[in-house]
Amino acid sequence: MPGRASGARHQTGSNRFKRRVVRYGHFDDEGREYVITRPDTPLPWINYLGTEAYFGIISNTAGGYSFYRDARLRRLSRYRYNNAPLDMGGRYVYLRDDDSGEFWSPSWQPTQNELEDYSCRHGLGYSIICSTYKGIRGETTYFVPLGENLEVWRIRVTNERKTQALVSLFDSIEFCLWEAQEDSTNFQRNYSTGQVEVEDGVIYHKTEYRERRDHFAFFACSASLAGFDTQRDSFLGPYRGWDRPIVVEKGKATDSVAHGWQPMGCHHVKLELAPGETKEVIVLLGYQENPKNDKFDPPGSQTINKKRVKPIIARYLQPAAVEQAFTDLRDYWTRTLGILQVRTDNEHVDRMVNIWNAYQCMVTFNMSRSASLYESGIGRGMGFRDSNQDLLGFVHMVPARARERILDIAATQLPNGGAYHQYQPLTKRGNNDVGSGFNDDPAWLVLGVAAYLKETGDSPILDEPVPYDNATGTETPLYEHLQRAIQYTLDRLGPHGLPLIGRADWNDCLNLNCFSETPGESFQTTENKEGGVAESVFIGGLFVLAAQELAGLAKLRGDNAEANRSLAASEQMTDVVQKAGWDGAWFRRAYDYFGKVVGSRECAEGQIFIEPQGMCIMAGIGLENGMAQRSLASVRERLATPHGIVLNQPAYTYYHLELGEISTYPEGYKENAGIFCHTNPWLMIAEAMVGNGERALDYYLRINPSAREEISEIHRCEPYVYAQMIAGKDAPTPGEAKNSWLTGTAAWNFVAVSQWILGIRAAHDGLRIDPSLPAGWGGFSAMRRFRGARYNITVHKAPGSAGRVTRLTVDGRETPGNLIPLPTRPGQSFDVEAFIQ
Ligand code: BGC
Ligand code: NOJ
């Protein structure tokens, strides 16, 4: 961690909302943890386990589920969405005082006993839940070792009493019958298919293994067992829930073997604890595949072949192996986050940039939009647009995996340059059900690839042969995919010369060609009405930006013809946007099916939208003629609120058939005047670009989850990660967040604060140092690894001064402008000093 340059450390955000401070925990920045100290958080506050193939979500009370690669097709354990009480189904452990017969869960749920103390430490890829009840302390560390398809629950039970304690421990997991959608609907079949095996105390879940599946789950325990259960009904007892399983109440497992119904796993362990004594029990839940022709042992039998899995189980039931795996996981995150570390005047900036925002970007890389408390794991595939934007936030941490992601995405592109709106992670094929026609999609690929190249300099990627729609024989260099992406827009211009919107642009809910009157119909996929001319100013701005990026790539290749063509197209579109897209004080949003303007003072509702203000200015439109500044003033006057910038104003108060889903949401929620956090950083970037670091940081702090920690009662979602949406000023619950974790908000905020406010920005020809800071700040310091070199950066700024970098030195040598040239050989280290007068 670099040292700070100068200036006092501001505890900014100190009751900026003028509300009673309510917190449910605190940040431990040294330990890179958020420590929750009350189990009854306003909503379950979750974390993610796993980094490669085996994943899980885990709440602060041990709720959640696990899966292998695909949360729908290979789900290991059950979770009940939208349940009452909230957050049911998890990795529950029960302790029972065998003298008194009293039992409880150290994770509070599901028994909800009044615990003497409680904490849940959510860390990077692990969670530790700990509590004490009547002198017995129970602590469980949950994590997935790197490179393994299993999760560890390391349980430590301590007797803090003055006398000996006899304690029964029961772990529990309810198996999902693999396909999560079927599992929660097809009961006529499911109630008869469940199968398990129990061998040496290990519970193997093998539903459908007899037929087409070559994978099974295992649930193992390091202690010798007093018994086990694998049938849910035997464990819980008839008409009972997870809050008072009969087996736990009675203190005796029944050794049940599941045949159909609901297979589960439970190990019963008896612990004798002297005063002060701690005992450790390791529990493993894992996933294993066998080759199709080697599934059974002995061959011809129906018994699972366990020869591959047994050594893995044996290894991780050893405390030393678990300890080592935990250390390795922590080191992995130190390395991953170590690409950029900053030390500034603001603790909310530091902890989000250094820890949580970067971590959330990695989670969106792994999960896309599949599994959270708001994404059920059975719904959306990988979004074409989403994936390209997510990349902006993680490309510097995992460049090799970003490369692979880019090639996967590009391979789903259509020959006409268009894109499937989504693709499926397991097959990597475009999703036909959702189809294409979201006319902004292709342009995001250009932004994603450009960001990758700036970070890595890996220009050979542009020559990689990549197919269209995954069809063999159609391969062209990736570079041509980008050219076709740009051409796609040029081939679809409307009467004003603006890009046609298609089904929707970034705003999935602005469906200008849909005209849906049938309940339940999808606004995104329903057949569009023919013959319209709906155009998007937003795509106009996006196109200007993307065409500039393509020109940058073309120059790298010495393809001047393309560079000139793209720049000309970009200028031409800039012109169109300034004529047809300017409303006098802000950028318009669109023209509808009939050619009527959307997002204009002429409209009764929805006069101004955030998206075109952000995107057009990021593309550089209006920077020189005052339009940008005017647009930003309008955002400030009409859209900015203490909780963030709302999407549009005035909110739509009734259903506008010609606008689609946007007007289905009650005022202040989601795309109808909610604070759609994904778009806020565009305005931070725009403010930074025009040199208003003060306002850029102000907007940043309004939605920064750490800065909102003290209003947790209002915000309700986790204070360590961004949510997709915060309710806007028109909502009855302004400031209330929803849909945390899986959102493009993560990547864009990371870009805004690290690249534009702090101004450390990868470029094709070097590393740019271009901060745009508030006057009150001192300087800051940062460590950035880039293209194999290490840069120790100190920005010198006297509090009170504003403005941009006026002088730059690299290892003491004066360097013109604000660009540090590329390193000449790997392993170099540079001391960089930048001065703002
Ligand atoms: C949501 C959008 C989302 C879309 C995806 C809509 O209901 O409001 O945010 O992108 O569904 O299908
Ligand atoms: C969520 C989608 O994932 C994202 O792609 C979209 O831009 C926003 N919704 C806005 O509608």
Tell me the layout of helices and strands.
Elements lengths: L24 E4 L4 E4 L9 E4 L4 E6 L6 E3 L6 E3 L14 E6 L5 E2 L12 E6 L3 E8 L2 E8 L6 E10 L5 E14 L1 H4 L3 H7 L2 E4 L2 E4 L9 E7 L5 E5 H5 L9 H5 L12 E11 L4 E12 L19 H8 L2 H19 L2 E4 L3 H21 L14 E2 H11 L4 H12 L11 E2 L17 H16 L8 E2 L9 E2 H13 L44 E2 H20 L3 H21 L9 E2 L5 E2 L9 E2 H9 L8 H13 E2 L2 E2 L2 E2 L25 E2 L3 H10 L3 H11 L8 H4 L7 E4 L10 E4 L4 H13 L2 E4 L2 E4 L10 E7 L2 E9 L7 E6 L2 E3 L3 E3 L7 E8 L1
Parallel strand pairs: 38-42
Antiparallel strand pairs: 1-2, 2-9, 3-4, 4-5, 6-13, 7-8, 7-13, 9-10, 10-11, 11-12, 12-19, 13-18, 14-15, 15-16, 16-19, 17-18, 20-37, 21-22, 23-24, 25-26, 26-27, 28-31, 29-30, 32-33, 33-34, 35-36, 36-41, 37-38, 39-40, 39-42
Helix pairs in contact: 7-8, 7-19, 8-9, 8-10, 8-19, 9-10, 10-11, 10-12, 11-12, 12-13, 12-14, 14-15, 14-16, 16-17, 16-19, 17-19
Bound molecules: beta-D-glucopyranose and 1-deoxynojirimycin.
The site of beta-D-glucopyranose has 6 residues, from loops.
Your description of this structure?
By secondary structure, the protein is α+β, with helices and mostly antiparallel strands. The protein is built from 19 helices and 42 strands. The chain has a 10-stranded antiparallel beta sheet, covered by helices on one side. Strands 6, 7, 8, 13, 17 and 18 form a 6-stranded antiparallel beta sheet that branches. Helix 8 runs antiparallel to helix 9 and helix 10 packs parallel to helix 12 (about 535-555). It is globular. The protein starts with about 25 loop residues before the first strand and ends with a strand. 1-deoxynojirimycin binds next to helix 8.
